[in-house]
Write a structure and sequence with these properties.
Four copies of one chain form a homotetramer.
Chain A lengths: L7 H19 L6 H8 L3 H7 L3 H25 L4 H18 L1 H12 L2 H7 L1 H20 L9 H20 L7 H17 L7
Helix pairs in contact in A: 1-2, 1-6, 2-3, 4-5, 4-6, 4-8, 5-6, 5-10, 6-9, 8-9, 9-10
Chain A binds a DNA duplex (21 and 21 nucleotides) through helix 3.
Chain lengths: 203, 203, 203, 203
DNA sequence: TATGAATGAGGCTTCATTCAT
DNA sequence: TATGAATGAAGCCTCATTCAT
């Protein structure tokens, strides 16, 4: 009796979860608000009870998730560990996020991060925040002599993040096969590629 | 008399060029067909004489440009030069393309390549073709012992292309400063980062 | 304890008073039921405990006030005084009403009396009642030889009431300045204009 | 052949005329844009080809008509005739307008002039212009000694216009009977009432 | 080839009202 | 009495596309 009722927060969550599925399936622009409501099993208007607009639903999904990442980046930066490991932590976090909730990640990548011209513009500052956090990690690595100094930290951050996002995109659109093993292996490959470089070493 | 008339092909070109400016400025979804016509200084319906639909205008812009890149990748792959130089050739081509026609490149990146859910889907095979071409170059590099073998060629291609696209996106949305010097320097940085790796070397 | 509780009637009054402020500020159609509730500091649904609908709130405001006027008109008609004074009594009542509660009068004029296509229709009979009351006063004036007989009483009533309402409207929309003095002066001017006429008299 | 085609201007007119009928019948807020299109026998979107919005249709109807009235007021003011005749000219113009096109006048009065809180606000300045024109006529009458000086010209203008509008409203809502004869008689009655006054004169 | 008037489907949002607690 | 979550109908506007000339 006590637990049989859905609270307001749960209903809100219900709608957000439904939105993830619908956005992932049909795309943000292609889906209608009624699709979200139907998927959530609630009335049309209820979406507008909890969110100001269709945009705000996506906003919420993005911000909730993205803030976790920027927080992680900040956290990792403060830790006492080799820069390589820091970058691996970030890679792990992102790839694990995809493993745990590929639909949500698809939405964030496809509809926000990579849709820079429409929705991305709105969140450019938040996105930039993550890039800057990564750049700071690189910078600290350079100060500690772990990272070469002839590549600017900002450029390095872009290359690193760009590589990660491209891999995610490959998985999303099935250009590369995805699975537990692939995800795990990719963590190593990203760090090996970006930190170690593609060149074959004589040593 | 003979030269005062614009030929059909020229009119078509006029519309395509106008479309680039309008798509770059307003985005594909935000602009109307009439905006293209206005920008081109032609009548509304004429766009439909030369193109089946608004989509086809963007399709044309993308294909015309993208085919040049896949052609270049094929061409470069066949040349007898170090893999590093091959990758640099590709990087050069892309960054020079942006330098010469930033609006067109913006449209292709923002509206097609990174709009994977809408136009990207349509052109997925063509886009994949470029990735595969790059992967082949990496593979040949591995065969020749220039590229390490513990990173799969497809993964390496993604990291490489992802880094490039992320840099382009940074320029487009002014997350990184752009200019002649930056573009030139970026060619080196991409290759240094991806091939050389970010690690500081003792040697 | 006994006095700290608001009675039902008081709550109802609270809502009505809030409605006046909200209707006056935003207009009946532009405001939402929740605006009224917010203004009254009560819960959304409570408005529906005391009123069947949003319409009924306005209906109530109108009827409560308008009935006072028709009552006054009846009352005045029965008094033994010159017709001019009767008309002045009515003018006084209306202008004083505006002075005492300009927001309520604004609502009644703007949202009911002058909104003939929506609420006016509903209350047409009640509104007509007032016109007829005034017409009767004119008629009695004609019978007593105080009012010229070549203007029909109904027409005279319309001219009289129309002039009053136009002055009210002018105040409401600040086409004419309003204040204590202006309100007082207007009472005389209305009667002088309508009864005395605008013509300059030689006498 | 030459006359069988409807020109663009005629189509626009077609829509405006249909709008008058629909607005008069259902009221501006109650009718849908599709009602206008249906009444005009054109496609939904065509209304938006000729007008920016539903509002603009009403705007156009109002402005086209109202400008005629302000023009007339200006014109009449410049003529060399007794003030009484000037006011009669204005009254004639308005009542004739109603006689010729009662639906259009109903729309203007009910949906704009008297709907001061919604649409009226938009046109307040234009409406005010007419009042001021009438006030100027009264003022000139006062200067020439034809109109009493103890009633301000602005107040007199309000009383005069208010009386007219109230009569129109009475006809519109059938509070007073309307016909050729009534309209003609009303012209005299308005002037007699406002200029002559309701008082019975001993002379 | 060229024009631009004409078409009409589609979707977001608002908000009065109901109802379970 | 009191609350506010839940419902869902209704309508304006956009704009890609067609078509008659």
């Amino acid at each position: 009796m006590a637990t049989s009722k859905t609270t307001a927060a749960e209903k809100r969550r219900l709608i957000l979860d439904a939105a993830v599925r619908v956005f992932a399936r049909q795309g943000f622009h292609t889906c209608r608000v009624s699709d979200i409501a139907d998927e959530a099993g609630v009335a049309y208007g209820l979406v507008y009870h909890y969110f100001r607009s269709k945009d705000e639903v996506l906003d919420t999904l993005f911000r909730d998730r993205w803030s976790l990442m920027t927080a992680l980046i900040e956290d990792v930066d403060g830790r006492d560990m080799p820069t390589r490991d820091k970058l691996r932590q970030i890679t792990s976090f992102i790839f694990d996020s995809y493993r745990h909730d590929p639909e949500l990640m698809k939405v964030i990548i496809v509809e926000v991060t990579r849709a820079a011209n429409s929705f991305g513009q709105t969140h450019l500052q938040e996105i930039r925040g993550a890039y800057e956090g990564i750049a700071r990690i690189v910078e600290h690595g350079q100060e500690r002599g772990e990272i070469r100094g002839d590549v600017t930290s900002q450029f390095a951050a872009m290359a690193f993040y760009g590589a990660i996002e491209q891999v995610l995109t490959s998985w999303i659109f099935e250009l590369l096969p995805f699975g537990e093993a692939e995800a795990e292996q990719a963590k190593t490959l990203i760090v090996e590629t970006i930190c170690g470089g593609l060149d074959a070493r004589s040593a």
